[in-house]
Amino acid sequence: MSTDALAFCLDLGRAHASLRLKLNEDLGAFHGLDYEDFTLLHLLLRAGNGNMPIAELAHTLGLPMSALIRKMVLLEKTGLAERMTGTDGDSRRHAVIRSGGRKLMQVAITTVEAICADAVKSLDAQRLPDLHAALRALGDHDTSHA
């Protein structure tokens, strides 16, 4: 890895940490969620029928299965999500957003959108699509062989 790539990745990590702290602070204060809960529920909200196979969800979130199950247990206790067997012959376990989770996410998304808009306001708006594409490419890059 070149020094430029290292500096970029370290700065990216610091930017993520700063944004994550702000999101955790406001999501916790206003909605009783942390950033990981929000991300999990957001994925379920966007998924077809509000559910996703648990193994796929764990992979998308970058969590070990045991960590996802611990999160799911907490979300089940608060009535925001649940685990269930798939339908139509799909025997895999799925994570499903419940109606309480949908309602909470409607207002939490507004909070997160405002925080994110504030976070990117110093960036050139015309470059945001390119920056977004670059971040998506980094996120899709398989680093398991590094």
Could you provide a short overview of the structure?
This protein has 146 residues and is mainly alpha-helical. 66% of the residues lie in helices and 9% in strands.
Characterization of the model:
By secondary structure, the protein is mostly helical. The protein is built from six helices and three strands. The protein has helices spanning 3-31, 35-46, 54-61, 65-77, 99-120, 128-140; strands at residues 51-53, 81-85, 93-97. A hairpin with a 7-residue loop joins strand 2 and strand 3. Helix 2 (35-46) crosses helix 5 (99-120). It is globular, with a radius of gyration of 17 Å.
Write the layout of secondary structure elements.
Elements: H1 3-31, H2 35-46, E1 51-53, H3 54-61, H4 65-77, E2 81-85, E3 93-97, H5 99-120, H6 128-140
Antiparallel strand pairs: 1-3, 2-3
Keywords:
single chain; 146 residues; mainly alpha; 3-stranded antiparallel sheet; 6 helices; 66% helix
